[in-house]
UniProtKB/TrEMBL annotation:
UniProt KW keywords: Membrane, Transmembrane, Transmembrane helix
Official protein name in the record: Ubiquitin 3 binding protein But2 C-terminal domain-containing protein
Organism in which the protein naturally occurs: Mycena indigotica
Listed transmembrane segments: 26-46
Length: 271
């Protein structure tokens, strides 16, 4: 049974300051599930890398099958190791909630949008997202995190999606180079949105549990098209999320709220 640590605030942020600020920089901290996921996917990835090539595994004798079963038995030490890490106040990789996100719409190119919880992606709407992180890990990536439907509805969350959600584009934008650009104060319109610099990768906004069940996606965090970037220390990144031109009629809409269960676009530190 997966174990959840309740939502926690970033240890480095003064709690009093958070109460005063309207849009605090918060993080999902120490999500054990995240840690387990990352560790498991790494373990499987390493197994894939160093195990025998797939074509050699097709004809297995009973003994080999047994050996392979041993390989996939979850390590009984995993939870214990996890506990030791916790006791020693080891820094867990964190899931970081965005510092802000703002919709822009080509249909109303001069309308200025301000940060809100509403996420809308369509062929004419894209989203500017910004994350700030103080990371002990050298690499971070962006991900679409969709909790199972039952959990979402228990948490009063839902999303509506039409078309292909498996390749939402993540563009690095100019504001990343000038982090002082205060998007939250001025708001952003389609005509003033920061210029795209390069395509960082794409996101698969489908059920996270479904993705974990597919062996060909094991270790996907470590390779393209996952949008990855170096993030050791203090990092701020601003991106534009958009559908590709070939995603005809695609539309995604939901409210991204800082509460469990996670639903939305998140930054993950990679252990
Ligand atoms: C979910 O939303 C409904 C109606 O908006 C409300 O009555 C209910 O209390 C909410 N439940 C939770 C767990 O927030
Ligand atoms: C996206 O995730 C789904 C499972 O939710 C999987 O079937 C699909 O192959 C994934 N696509 C990509 C491009 O990663």
């Amino acid at each position: 049974m997966a174990e959840y640590t309740p939502l926690m605030l970033d240890e480095d942020v003064d709690t009093k300051r958070i109460e005063k600020r309207s849009r605090p920089r918060l993080v999902f901290c120490g999500l054990s599930i995240t840690m387990l996921t990352v560790l498991l996917s790494l373990a499987i990835h390493i197994d894939v890398l160093f195990g025998p090539p797939v074509h050699q595994q097709t004809l297995l004798g009973a003994k080999n099958v047994e050996t392979h079963f041993e390989n996939v038995t979850p390590s009984p030490n995993l939870l214990q190791g996890h506990e030791i890490m916790r006791k020693n106040r080891f820094k867990f990789p964190q899931m970081v909630f965005p510092a802000l996100f703002i919709r822009v719409s080509a249909e109303e190119p001069n309308k200025f949008y301000r940060p809100s919880s509403s996420v809308v992606l369509s062929q004419t709407d894209s989203m500017i997202y910004r994350w700030k992180t103080k990371s002990n890990w050298p690499t971070c990536y962006l991900t679409g995190w969709v909790s199972p439907r039952a959990e979402l509805s228990a948490g009063n969350k839902s999303y509506s999606a039409r078309g292909d959600m498996t390749a939402i584009q993540v563009w690095l934008v100019e504001a990343t180079r000038s982090p002082n650009l205060d998007l939250s104060k001025s708001g952003v319109s389609w005509n003033t949105k920061p210029h795209r610099i390069s395509l960082l990768g794409t996101l698969n906004f489908t059920s996270h549990a479904d993705q974990e069940g597919r062996s060909y996606l094991d270790g996907q965090e470590l390779k393209p098209p996952t949008p990855r970037f170096p993030c050791l220390g203090q990092t701020e990144i601003t991106v534009e999320l958009a559908f590709g031109d070939d995603c005809v009629g695609c539309r995604l809409q939901f409210e991204q709220v800082f509460s469990m269960p996670p639903l939305g676009f998140e930054l993950m530190q990679l252990a």
